[in-house]
Amino acid sequence: MNLADLLPEGSLDALTQQLGISREDTERGAQALLPSLIGSIDGKTAAPVEPAGLAAQVQALGGSRLIDNVVGSSPTDTGLGNQLLASLFGSKDVSREVAGKASQATGLDPAILKKMLPILAMLVAGHLAKRSGGQQGGLESILGSIAGALAGSDGSSGSATSAGGLGGILGSILGGR
C-alpha cells in the first residue's frame, strides 16, 4: 500500500513528532493500521456505516480541516478521531483489537498504536475529503467507491485485506497523487 495515496503530505512527520517514535516506526504502524481503517468502510464491522452517513460525519467534524488539526501547530484534538473510530468500528474494543493485531504484526507497543489510530483516522478522512474537491456528494462517492471495491475484491473485512490489494484498489479509485 502506498501511504501517499491515503495520507496528506507532512502527516507522517506530524505523527512521528506527536508520538515520539522514529519515522520508520511511524511508517510501520501506519502500514499496519490503515487496512483496518479503510476496510471498515465496506460495512462489515460491528456497526456498519453507510458512505453517506460517514461523509456527513467527516464534513461535520471539519472535512479537509481534519488534516490541519493534525499537522498544524496546535495540539491535535484526538476526540475528533475517536468519533470517527466509533462510527467505523462501533466500539473501543474493536479499536483495541486493531491496535493489538497491528502490534503483533509490527512489534510496536500497542499503546503507541492506540494513540496513532484516531490521528490516522483524522488524516485519512481529511485527505479523502480534500481529494473530493468539496463537490456535492464527492466524498460520499469516494467512500462508496472504496466500499464497493472492497466488497468486490475478496469479500473480507479490512483486517484481512492484503496491503497490496488495498493499495491497488485505492490507487485506482483516487487516481494516484
Automatic annotation (TrEMBL):
Protein name (database record): DUF937 domain-containing protein
Originating organism: Sphingobium yanoikuyae (Sphingomonas yanoikuyae)
Top-level taxonomy: Bacteria, Pseudomonadati, Pseudomonadota, Alphaproteobacteria, Sphingomonadales
